[in-house]
Design goal:
This protein is an alpha/beta fold. 38% of the residues lie in helices and 18% in strands. The strands form 2 sheets. Strands 1, 2, 3, 4, 5 and 11 form a 6-stranded mixed sheet that branches.
């Protein structure tokens, strides 16, 4: 069984309790593949992987083929992607901007807020340099890049502020989650979700030891202090299992996408989760 995730520190942290053998499943071996988030989104549209990290902004497009998992989720609360530009630069109405992918949550919010901007999609690791080189007028930074960028750049707008305006509240900003193929046997899907949930829980319980191992083995791109800060943003205790507030936030994101023509219908995320109660009903 292959689990596809991004190479970003939060995904690495939430998966590697499985990779290191701290969590396992009888008679089932797991492997992983790390791809940038937009590649994962694109592969999910093709149905490539049984279990995959995705942007929440993608999910309505794959709802018929994948169920949402409740674990390994990343939200922003007062923070998130940043629209940056060179200092002393004034952005015109149709400014050229670099985004990390068409199906990312940040792209959905940006396109709603800036419908006339000229968008270029590129790997998120290339966005800062593209702004510095003048290839684009601005760019949306995501993942670890929000924690540090060149001194000649500054924030034009926080996408957290865009989210709050569109949502009409300060619900947490849904960024990334996990999806599982619907064609898998339901008992297997439940077992996989339980395993992944346990992996994230154990990662959090042993954060210091796991973080040290990730740093020592060069499995993350950032240093120890930055990793500590980053994990508290995107792989924190709220990442273990979705809560009611997070459900409401995902539902609001899907509502915004539907109202602005990005989705063909408005959906309730709770209708697209694995029915965990199936095991109890089956054994009753």
């Amino acid at each position: 069984m292959v689990i596809a995730h991004s190479p970003d520190a939060d995904d690495i942290f939430m998966y590697y309790a499985i990779k290191f053998g701290w969590v396992s499943m009888k008679d089932r071996a797991f492997d992983n593949i790390a791809l940038d988030i937009e590649t994962l989104n694109t592969e999910a549209l093709k149905g490539t992987y049984d279990i995959s990290a995705i942007s929440f902004g993608l999910y309505p497009h794959i709802r018929n083929d994948y169920a949402l998992l409740r674990t390994a989720v990343s939200f922003g609360q007062g923070y998130g992607p940043k629209l940056i530009r060179k200092k002393e630069t004034v952005l015109k109405k149709r400014f050229k901007v670099a985004l990390s992918g068409k199906y990312t949550t940040n792209a959905l919010l940006f396109r709603v807020a800036y419908p006339e901007a000229k968008i270029v999609y590129m790997n998120f690791l290339e966005i800062e340099q593209a702004v510095l080189d003048g290839v684009v007028d601005a760019g949306v930074l995501i993942h670890e890049s929000i924690l540090g960028y060149d001194d000649s750049l500054e924030v034009e707008r926080e996408l957290w502020d865009v989210w709050c305006e569109l949502a009409g509240s300060e619900l947490p900003l849904p960024l990334g989650g996990m999806a599982i193929r619907r064609s898998l046997p339901i008992t297997s899907a439940i077992a996989y979700e339980n395993l992944l949930t346990k992996a994230v829980q154990i990662a959090r319980d042993h954060k210091e030891a796991l973080s040290k191992m990730l740093i020592e083995r060069s499995l993350v791109r950032i240093d120890a202090p930055t990793l500590e800060k980053y994990l508290e943003l995107y792989a924190n205790d709220e990442s273990i299992s979705l809560n009611e507030t997070q459900y409401k936030a995902i539902e609001k994101l899907f509502e915004i996408g539907y109202e602005h023509g990005f989705y063909d219908q408005k959906i309730d995320p709770k209708d697209f989760m694995i029915p965990l109660e199936y095991t109890e009903l089956r054994n009753s």
